[in-house]
Amino acid sequence: MNFVECHDEPIHIPGYIQSFGYLIGIDAATHSINFFSENIRDIFKLENFELLFGKKVTDFPELFKSILESDIFSDLEANTARENVTYFDKIFVENQQYHFSVFRTGDNIFLEFEKVQENPHKRINNKYDNFYIIDNEQEIWDQLLSTLSKIVNYDRMMIYKFMMDGSGKVIAEKTNNELESYMGLHYPESDIPRQARELYLKKRKRIFSDVYSEPVKLVSRKNETVDLTFAASRAMSPIHGQYVKNSGASSSFSVSIIIEDHLWGLVTCQNSEAKHIDLEDRVQAGIFTALAANAYSSFKSKKELDYQLALNEKASQLKSEFLKYNTLFESLVENISKIKDLPEADGLAIISHQDIVKEGLTPTNSAIEKIVEWAHENTNESMYVSRNFLKKYRHDLDINENTAGIIIYFIDRDKNELLIWFRKEFDEHIKWAGNPEKTIGVFSQNGEEKHIISPRTSFHAFTENIKGSSKRWDSRNISAAHAIRDVILETSHKQYTVIKQLNEELKQVNEELDSFSYTISHDLGTPLTVMKLNAQMLLNSLTDGSDKSKRKINSIIEEIDNMAVMMHDVLQLSRAKHSEIELEVIQTESTILKIAENAKMTFDSPASEVIIKNCPDVLADKTMLHQVFLNIINNAVKYSSHKEEPKVIIEGLVQGDFVMYSISDNGIGIPEEEKHKMFKIFNRMDNAKKFKGNGVGLSIVYRIMKRIGGNVDYESNKEGTCFFLTFKKPYI
């Protein structure tokens, strides 16, 4: 059984032409006649047309006199030097005027004829070609239909725009007011299948004068198929013919809208009765359509230029903002709203290592983490774009309606640095021109029965609801994302250069600071001791002194002690960075117990309950380990000492190749907004100002833990704080 689907139908070689046309085909090399349409006998009177095969047109000077006298035939070699370029003329045969066209396709030269048909209703003046003064997309197409109606005047005339998926939409329409409107209706991709779109790109004007007329067979000397792609009278495919009939039309005419060498859309005309348009009018319709297409292209180019200029200005401003900060992450976070808005997104997530910063409508952090994992595994390019991400991965990634559309940009895969833009679900309603379902039909051609996918018969509008998708990311949105990418790349390079220079300067400054740390610890230690002794002696000598004087001297002694502690801490910080380390297996319990007892005395908090649970051995440097536990346990006791029932819990757990100690307290807690600067030197929280300290201890802990291959982190709320110290596990 022969079976033909719409996409497979060989519509360029139907073997027939329409009844309004006449065709003679000659060999491009020998000029001998290879084929002709059966109706050619209606123009040229010859008893037996089979005699033409193998002969030349010039062999029949009387029969083909009008052809031989035509300018385009007398210069046939020049006019057919390039393929598929058509030349036109008019000839008379027995008092009847015909349009005469010549073109070459492959090895055949086509001589095509059709009767000249006057159009008494045509009314054209120069105002109709002023498309370039229109500054509105819709008005351009409305103006084109208005112009063409003065030439071809079909019952229904439409501008049909192809969508990215091959489907189409009617974006402009002009009818005789007796037909229902198709404006805004969508047509499935299968209505104009792939090979039909390819032909529309090659042959830009196509008329079916009468879908009910019988096609005219081509008679070929070589009994081979003839490529009729560029023949104006090429017969329609049976599938398309049935489609036009099902729509209630008897005639159709279309002109391709070509923009930047792509088939952008069609001017599609339908008439309830059979209707033929003269060749000159069809050519003129093509010219006006090309003018409108050029005007639209110019309009879009101008709009695109305006947009790009505005985008460049915004990108330049964004670049200036980025350079105000020392790190890329800070630059991104401080400009998160602008970065979100440039591609017209509803939400944005900035991911850097394990940190997630969000703006606008976004999924949960856990969902974002799943999306990041998916992106690492399933995308290779630096940028991934989808408008139906929710539809595809709703259940796999546990995402919600805020994640229907997505743009993922990897800044650095290895560092897990990326941006993710989100668009919410768009409840889209598409009005289709009829149910696109099709059935199998049967037709006969050349005595051979063939089965085809029959065109749909329903053209009543119905609405389809599309779920799981966002509004489409258009070219402007993608350009905006690319502009942000370029800003990141450029500023990252500048920041890298600046940071490299700063690092060199910082290295020199650190060396000077380290030297200064040792100097103040050594050289200032003695004067401070002398000052304290003198102050204490002075205090003891004031046996009869006033309380005010004693308070002042005690204040001096206290400040001297604070200065000594600060000098000691700065020295320890320097040592934590530069001291030689020697990792060994250390038993921690006795150290922790001693530090805890001393802390209760140091901070005058005998009521503090210090609970010490399991204390597994760790791999660390003995001196540095003492510094770490000293600072963390002291802080826990100190900041919980003002509670009615102060409590500190210390516990170590073995986790794989590491040992994690948790030191929790029920103290004042750490505000969330302070988290990013917790381990910076001299940082003190606002709620800790009533406690003694200088903000150096946690910096010492942070440096030591990094040097011995561990880590420090914490969790905190209003009920207290828990620090986590991760050490290497000793090898047994």
How far apart, in Å, are the first and last alpha carbons? 78 Å
Radius of gyration: 43 Å
Structure class:
alpha+beta
CATH topology of the largest domain: Beta-Lactamase
| Largest sheet report | 7 strands, antiparallel
Query: How helix-rich are the residues, as a percent range?
Result: 25-40%
Structural account:
The chain is α+β, with helices and mostly antiparallel strands and 732 residues long. The chain has 4 domains: 14-115, PAS domain (Beta-Lactamase, 2-Layer Sandwich); 125-218 and 225-302 and 433-466, GAF domain (Beta-Lactamase), CATH 3.30.450; 323-427 and 467-499, PHY domain (Beta-Lactamase, 2-Layer Sandwich); 579-728, Heat Shock Protein 90, CATH 3.30.565. Helices cover 36% and strands 25% of the residues. It is built from 17 helices and 30 strands. The strands form 7 sheets. The chain has a 7-stranded antiparallel beta sheet. The protein has a 6-stranded antiparallel beta sheet with strand order 10-9-8-14-13-11. Helix 4 runs antiparallel to helix 7 and helix 13 (525-541) runs antiparallel to helix 14 (547-578).
